[in-house]
Amino acid sequence: MSEEQAKTDNRARVTTDALRGFIQQGWAPRDETRPERSPAADYAAARRAALSAAYPGERLIVPAGGLKVRSNDCDYVFRPHTAFAYLTGLGADREPDAVLVLDPTDDGHEAILYFRPLAPRDSDEFFDDARFGEFWVGGRPTIEDIEAELGIAGRHIDEFLDQATKDASTTTVRVVRDADHALTSQLDARRVAEGSTQEVLEEADADLAHAISHARMVKDEHEVAQMRAAIAATQVGFEAVIAELDGVVDRGRGERWVEGIFGLHARHQGNGVGYDSICASGDHANTLHWIKNTGDIAAGDLILLDAGVEVDSLYTADITRTLPIDGTFTEAQAEIYDAVYAAQEAGMAAIRPGAKFSDIHAAAIRVIAEHVHGWGLLPDGVDVEASLDQETGQFHRRWMVHGTSHHLGLDVHDCALATMEEYREAELRPGMILTVEPGLYFKADDELAPERFRGIGIRIEDDVLVTEDGFENLSAGMPRARQDVENWIASIREQR
After folding, report:
1. Of 112, 107, 111, 113, whose CA–CA distance to 56 is shortest?
2. Is the pLDDT reported for residue 7 higher than 90?
3. Which end of the chain is more exposed for a tag (fewer CB within 10 A), N or C?
């Protein structure tokens, strides 16, 4: 349910019966052409069928969530909950306050979408509701539109609560709790009134949320296609940034300029950025989640750009390139870059069906430890094997504290509710999409780092699809070997 906006009377509009009547008449007939069936509809139906099979006879409720107030009477741009998007195929800005219900039947479940449909023109909402009215925010689909687009039954949201809790004393009702806290509270009250306890409800609901999250680990054909589109769009954004690099030094707050350039193309190519872009120059690259992007960019700096475009279906890329502003890596920058590249190559080489997810990190971090040891940075008497020891070592992690991989899809850190056994210790399967992103980070004030390395942070990140016989680097179109990166920059500059 949408958060309540502040209501004040200092901007109240006078609406007379005469004005109401005048506004409600004189409109051409609405176009009743129905939308084409969504390309995602059949895939979403298959996902719902798999979920249905796991919970026979139970009512499953997946809210989209509601609008959230940004400031007083303005809302944030709406993004539906990931579970809702996954099971309906609806993406950017679709549909606040909607709820997907899988209602049990004798042979499975009927999918019903409860939502706020297009209001008639003789309603006050049509012209006088600044939050939902067609005059203010544009038209919404009708029930018939939704049914044509998604191939599932549509109902008015006003019918939801009674229908969702009917027979609650004899039918198990589960809800994705974090999608809409206010709605969940209403459902809890009714379920408790029918004899359930809060503890039992929360445990049952958590199981549903976990099942949907875990199901997203292996992507179907539609999801892979959407990821390819997101990665292609991300390459457009990166190349637009590269085209601006030779002028960014003189602008001041150059990190913001880089962020803006990428964001412009992210918004134009897709729905926007999939997460706050990291545009970190100089020592800022050693802050792993530097999203302030307030810094200047100096000649000779590197800029670590960790960014991804989210397409309209909400699938997002997640790619990092560390780029020399001057077009050429210095000797010290090159030394670190080549180490990170070698670690990434080792991580990718570990990807194949049947290998463990954790094998990717193990392969990459071994290369990091070897380089750190080769530079003489480990404590006296500690070799590579001792540093890699999980119980007594890990000294190399001073310079790469994060993991090497995560699942990627509708969320930038996808499948977050999977257990340790289902995630880190699980076997890789064809259709999984993962990042591979080692790095090395030498803070400017790190007195244990070689002086020539201080203030340099480098990460390389690509998005990888597990295939039947290995992997495909989906972002291979964006150069990553050091000389290839320099050539990439030079080529784009020559085209200006």
Report:
1. 107
2. no
3. C
Do the domain assignments include residue 12?
no
- Give Cα separations from 172 to 64, 102, 108, 277 (angstroms): 21, 12, 14, 42
pLDDT for 474 beyond 80? yes
CB 352 within 8 A of CB 465: no
Tokens standing for residue 118:
């297009």
Check whether residue 202 and residue 258 sit in a common domain: no
Give per-residue pLDDT as tens, 412-455: 999 999 999 999 999 999 999 999 999 999 999 999 999 999 99
145-162 average pLDDT score: 97
User: Which domain does 125 fall in, by range?
Assistant: 17-215
Indicate whether 206 and 286 sit together in one domain.
no
Residue 74 burial (CB < 10 Å; 0-12/13-18/19+)? exposed
Residue 309 pairs in a beta bridge with 273
Q: Which of 189, 215, 241 is the last residue of a domain?
A: 215
Q: Which residue matches tokens 């890596």?
A: 329
Token readout for 277 is 């872009």
Q: What order of strands is seen across the sheet that includes strand 99-105?
A: 153-156, 108-115, 99-105, 59-63, 173-175
373 shares a domain with 311: yes
- Angle, vertex CA 88, rays to CA 87 and CA 89, nearest 5: 105
Measured over the CA atoms of residue 376, residue 381, residue 386 and residue 392, the dihedral's sign is negative
**For the chain, what's the residue count?**
496
Model confidence over 330-363: pLDDT tens digits? 999 999 999 999 999 999 999 999 999 999 999 9
Most confident of 183-197, 241-255, 449-463: 449-463
Mean pLDDT of the chain: 96
User: CA-to-CA distance for 229 and 103, rounded, in angstroms?
Assistant: 34
Model pTM score = 0.96
Q: Is residue 26 part of a domain?
A: yes
CA atoms within 13 A on the CB side of 106: 0
Distances (CA, A) of 394 to 356, 368, 401, 439, 489: 20, 11, 9, 15, 36
Q: CB–CB of 449/240 below 8 Å?
A: no
CA distance 164 to 19: 39
Give the CATH number for residue 92: 3.40.350.10
